[in-house]
Amino acid sequence: MTTFTPKNLPLKHTIETTKVLKKAISANRALAKLNGVAKIIPNSTILINSLVLQEAKDSSEIENIITTHDELYRASLDISSVTNETKEVQNYQQALLKGFDLIKENKLLLKKYIIDIQQELEQNDAGVRKQSGTVLKNAKTGEVVFTPPQDYQVIQDLLDNIEQYINEPNDIDPLINMAIIHYQFETIHPFYDGNGRTGRIINILYLILKDLLDIPILYMSRYIINHKADYYRLLQEVRTEDKWEEWILYMLDGVEQTSLETIELINGIHSLMNETKDEIKGKLPKIYSKDLIEILFMHPYTKIEFLVDSLGVTRQTASRYLKELETIGVMESIQIKNSKFFINKELFSMLQKSI
Hints:
By secondary structure, this protein is mainly alpha-helical. The protein folds into 2 domains: 21-265, Fic-like fold (Orthogonal Bundle); 284-346, Winged helix-like DNA-binding domain superfamily/Winged helix DNA-binding domain (Arc Repressor Mutant, subunit A). It contains 15 helices and 5 strands. It has helices spanning 18-37, 44-62, 69-76, 84-106, 111-122, 152-167, 174-188, 195-209, 221-226, 228-241, 244-283, 290-298, 304-311, 315-327, 345-353, and strands at 136-137, 144-146, 301-302, 332-336, 339-343. The chain has a 3-stranded antiparallel beta sheet with strand order 3-5-4.
């Protein structure tokens, strides 16, 4: 079994070609625009809730863990039985948010944080691989396409190196660095499971660490799903042929495309919030408040308790508000077991169609 051990970072040769630098400019421009547009929705929790769940679903789908939006929404409120697939997606969401909290608090992305994130994702403490035998196979043919480092100490040393590279400043554009780091992590393949999903979490955390994003709202998993064969081919070509340019261009294109698509989604949510505000103000002015609008967009499903907790009203009043909102078509009620929930139909539809 021939193993492939990536070289320590930084790379010894120049990879910032004219094509790469040109693409980095447009990708950075799109990302900066996204970071600015996100501020049009003052309550960032609305975007984080929507987009983290979307990314959790899509990133897990790359690993053939399939669930639906509706299953996720219901499971997040404990209103339906949770399938194993849905639970795995929820674990991804929790792992990503845990990483976000660690970055905000410590301004570093350390090896131990990456291990913590993977443990949250996998819900076990197996940690870094200690036993040999891990190989990556072609899902269709079963052929071994890549054997990552097998020795425990080698893996630990490589993780120490990637930690240093992530946290120490260098002169390379951060988006290009993100592509380098993603390749390096996936090639080290340090865990028994969850490497791909952990690597995609590292992408977003690195952009936050480098102050390119304020909140975790850029998720490239949908782009990778749409270009999955290229993703694995280009990773492998860096290993076998040292072909960095095409890999970095692929990742930069992913940042640019995803930024533009996410901007469109955020603008859509913002417009829908304004339309809903005007609808309620016009037809139900006595119950209108800014806080009520935010509650209705915090989650596609709303229940009486949300209004009681956030607005400080009685259950009777909260129930009346939601029934009145249903009367004018803003919400739609659904009975699940012994509880009634109200769905923001337009938001639900928008998120289902989104990136």
